[in-house]
Amino acid sequence: MFTRNDDIRNQIWEVVSGLDEDQLNRKPTPEQWSIMQVLRHLSLMEHVIGKQARLALEKEPIGLVDKKPYERSLDRSRSVEAPPHLQPPAAPEALADVRSDLEASHRALEQLAREHDVEVLRSKSFPHPVFGEMDLAQWVDFASYHEERHLGQIQDIKQQLGL
Fold first, then answer.
1. Is the pTM of this model over 0.85?
2. Around Cβ 67, how many Cβ atoms within 10 Å?
3. How far is Cα 153 from Cα 9, in angstroms, rounded to an integer?
4. Tally of CA atoms within 13 A in the half-sphere of 140 that contains its CB
5. What is the per-residue pLDDT across 102-135, written as a single tens digit (0 to 9) for each?
6. Closest CA to 17 of 39, 2, 50
7. Half-sphere exposure of 149 (CA within 13 A, CB side)
8. ∠ CA 151-156-160, rounded to 5°
9. Would you state the torsion angle of the CA atoms of residues 83, 44, 99, 92, taken in this order, to the nearest 10 degrees?
10. Are 83 and 129 in contact (CB under 8 A)?
């Protein structure tokens, strides 16, 4: 169940390998995020998904939730501003700190996915601000699509910066 998540994460690390912290913290324009800010956003998002999923697991099972079209999040022609709690800090960060947090959030989400049967994950849910109620299996899968969307953003930032 977590293979896609691992594959996208590995692609992200490949795309940023060889970049130094100055390059990772550089913004193409004042309004845009740096690569480091994108990485921090991914950590924040994965942490929130894991936290909300753990809370949902404590609740009573719900009926089946329809499959949501979260694959549409790959369409980067439409932008959705991240809510304040998922906005990265403006100050430059150290790659070691961000990478450590990303690895921790990834391991926690993977553990949640592996510790529960798919039937259990499909019987618990919480709402997505765009797609509505999504069961936990969908949330785990969505995390990979969210990261793939931002993988494209990272590639664009690299190109804009000439890296």
1. yes
2. 13
3. 14
4. 27
5. 999 999 999 999 999 999 999 999 999 889 999 9
6. 39
7. 20
8. 150
9. 40
10. yes
